[in-house]
Known about the structure:
The termini are far apart. By secondary structure, the chain is an alpha+beta fold.
Amino acid sequence: xxxxxxxxxxxxxxxxxxxxxxxxxxxxxxxxxxxxxxxxxxxxxxxxxxxxxxxxxxxxxxxxxxxxxxxxxxxxxxxxxxxxxxxxxxxxxxxxxxxxxxxxxx
Length: 106
């Protein structure tokens, strides 16, 4: 399986996927930490996270796959939502909680 096929399989196999630096328990950048916080406050539980720092090939190829240059990258139902700024905007408007509630069991 190529790295691009693996990325697609992760996105297809999970309702919510966050490609981030570090882990939810130990984020390795402020943007990833804020995104995890927004997801948590929005009620997201049991979503898939992938630490791109542990997988250099994935980290190098995900921006090409998604056409999004930075991390974190949040996907919901196979669709790229965006990075930290967009996730925070959606959280502040209440939209993130609605999106999460539609796809995840709390």
